Amino acid sequence: GWALRIASGGQLEFVVWRDDVAWSVDADAPLDIGVSTHVVGVFGLGGMSVYVDGLFNDSITGASAPRDTAGLLQLGFDPADGYLDGVLDEVALYEQALSPMRIMAHFVAGR
Q: CB–CB of 48/25 below 8 Å?
């Protein structure tokens, strides 16, 4: 499975689980409260990356892909943490990793 969530320190966290192993990458700084923020988590052959407002923030290598699953996709909810205290808008999932240029184009188009 995977999650794109707000970590306890307020920063964006992208997590991928496979079996009993988890890999995660966190944004460098907490997200601003009350401000619309464009966030992206990318998983591809090169590893995992996070982008905030169209800009690359951090990455890791060596993560394994999550298993295919018939489980539910839950947006704005985590069984351990409950519901998101915020708004989700224009959520998108893609079959392939987006390039940095495409991520920036999505951010610019959404302003």
A: yes
